[in-house]
Fold:
Amino acid sequence: MSAPRPQLDLFKGKQARDAGIEQTSATNSAWLALGIALLPVMARTRTSATGEEMRVWLTEHGLPAPKSPHAWGALTQHAVRCGIIRDTMRTERMRDVRSHARRTPVWEFINTWRNHG
Structure:
C-alpha cells in the first residue's frame, strides 16, 4: 500500500503563509519597524540583495536578532508591501554555511527608496 499523496492547494498554502506572517509580525512588531526603517539606508548602497544579504547588512548596522527567525521572512514580505523591494524573479545560492547553498530570491530595491532616509 502506498503512502497517501500530500494535498496540493496553492490557495490554502498562501492562506497559511499569510497567517504565519501575521502571527510573526505581531510578535516582532517593534523589530519589524526598525528593520523597515533601515532598509532605505541599505538601498543607497546597492540596487538588489537576497534576504540573506539583507539579514547580514541589517544586523551589521544595528538591527538585533528577532524573537523568531521567521521574522526575517516577514520583514521581506513587509518590505514588498511597503514598496521598498520587488521580486526580480532571479535566484542566487545562499552563502551562509547553515543555508547549505540553497537557492534564494534576489530582491530589487525600488529606485524611489534610494534617495530617502
Remarks:
- The CA atoms of residues 21 and 77 lie 8 Å apart.
- Residues 113-117 have pLDDT under 50 and may be disordered.
- The helical segments are 10-27, 29-43, 51-60, 71-81.
- The beta strands are 48-50, 85-93, 103-109.
